[in-house]
Amino acid sequence: MVAWGSAAVIETGGPGRFWHAEAAWRGLVERFDIRDEVGVPGTGPVAFVSFRLRRRPRPVGAGRTRVLVGRRAGRSWVTEIDVRGGAWSDGVPGCLVPASARVAVRSPTALRWSDGAMPASRWRAAVATAVRRMRAGELEKVVLARDVVAHSATPLDSRHLMRGLADRNPDSWTFAGAGSGGCHPRNCCCAARTATSTPVVLAGTSWPGEPLDLLGSAKSRHEHAVAVESLLSALEPSCTWVRSTGPSLLALPTVTHLSTDVHARLADPGRDTLFVPGRGGYTPPRPSAGRHVAPRWRSSPSWRPSAAWTGAATPDRSAGWTRTATENWALALRCAQLRGTSARLFAGCGLVADSDPDTELAETEAKFRAVRDSLARNPETP
């Protein structure tokens, strides 16, 4: 799906942000006269949403688009909104973007790289500090993020990045919006209010050149087990049942993960499903961990890597689209924030007491490759 324009924006924040957004979204949809002749997930009212995972009172937003073009299972459609009449319509109304307004996709030029907020040497030191604290019994698991910055001689085009990610990761969920983009190997899908929700846990990583048997590695299995247990315990209070299947190996173009599917049925499906992103983080943030690891570094207000928190390994946002009956969500992994001629890439690692700083650094480099290769690709080749 590709969308542009803004018919409405919902802003909320704080611990109740998911429920507030859900209530506001329902209120908007109920007032519209919806004419949907296609009737597949993604048609009708659609909102593109981004949430911070941490419970800070900073506003987050959900934007309802004015024009959306979609394709699913060989069927294509266009959704338009008449703001004055309060109506959605799905059809094929010809050319929506005049030829004079079309801009060719731009490729980066003279691409070069630099350290982000924390150089590699300092990041290794932060990993070593976290490991010492965990071996002392103060923490069980810590997730540290790292960033690098790409610089281009010309403005960066998110479409170039998206095409590269989609081409190189055909089985992943690629997303972009508000100057950011990335891809996640799996997404959480809530297919109708009474359907099963399926978050997936990815923890424990190997990559080409790293001779590691993930399924046979005690360190990787422990890291994965902590993440699975964290998600299960977060979901159980709001679900009638929760089940997990795994771990198994999920092989991707640049890395291989231990993967566990988690299925849950909401206890109150009539109330909401937006709570899933908030409970679907791999390891919920624990602010007390910050003083044990490293000072948090500054970033833009909406993107803050979890450098000193046991929390999301990359920028603390989820990205997704939602309509009344269906939702899809993904953690913002393998991602970058584009601003003018620069792009800030994020990658993170789950740390346990047996983690090695040099190995963890190599893991971040492997995870950067998805976005690095997509930015640097030649548009004339796949």
Structure notes:
This protein has 382 residues and is of the alpha+beta class. The chain has two domains: 102 residues, no CATH class; 268 residues, Anthranilate synthase. The chain has seven helices and 20 strands. A six-stranded antiparallel β-sheet has the order 2-5-4-17-18-13. It has a six-stranded antiparallel β-sheet with strand order 9-10-20-19-12-11. A hairpin with a 4-residue loop joins strand 15 and strand 16. Helix 2 packs across helix 7 and helix 3 crosses helix 7. It starts with a strand and ends in a 6-residue tail after the last helix. About 9% of the residues have low confidence.
Quick summary:
The protein folds into 2 domains: 102 residues, no CATH class; 268 residues, Anthranilate synthase (4-Layer Sandwich). The protein is built from 7 helices and 20 strands.
Provide keyphrases for this structure.
382 residues, 2 domains, 6-stranded antiparallel beta sheet, 7 helices
List the helices and strands and how they pair.
Layout (H helix, E strand, L loop, with lengths): L1 E3 L3 E5 L4 H14 L2 E3 L11 E6 L7 E5 L2 E6 L2 E8 L4 E5 L20 E4 L4 H16 L6 E10 L6 H11 L4 E5 L2 E5 L3 E4 L8 E7 L11 H18 L3 E13 L4 E11 L8 H5 L10 H4 L23 E6 L3 E6 L3 E5 L2 E10 L5 H20 L6
Parallel strand pairs: 3-8
Antiparallel strand pairs: 1-6, 2-5, 4-5, 4-17, 6-7, 7-8, 9-10, 10-20, 11-12, 12-19, 13-18, 14-16, 15-16, 17-18, 19-20
Helix pairs in contact: 2-7, 3-7
Instruction: Give helix and strand order, one letter per element, not per position.
Output: EEHEEEEEEEHEHEEEEHEEHHEEEEH
From the coordinates shown, what is the CATH architecture of the largest domain?
Answer: 4-Layer Sandwich
Please give the domain count: 2
Helix content: 10-25%
Strand content: 25-35%
Number of helices: 7
CATH class of the largest domain: Alpha Beta
Q: How many runs of DSSP E, i.e. beta strands?
A: 20
Provide the structure class: alpha+beta
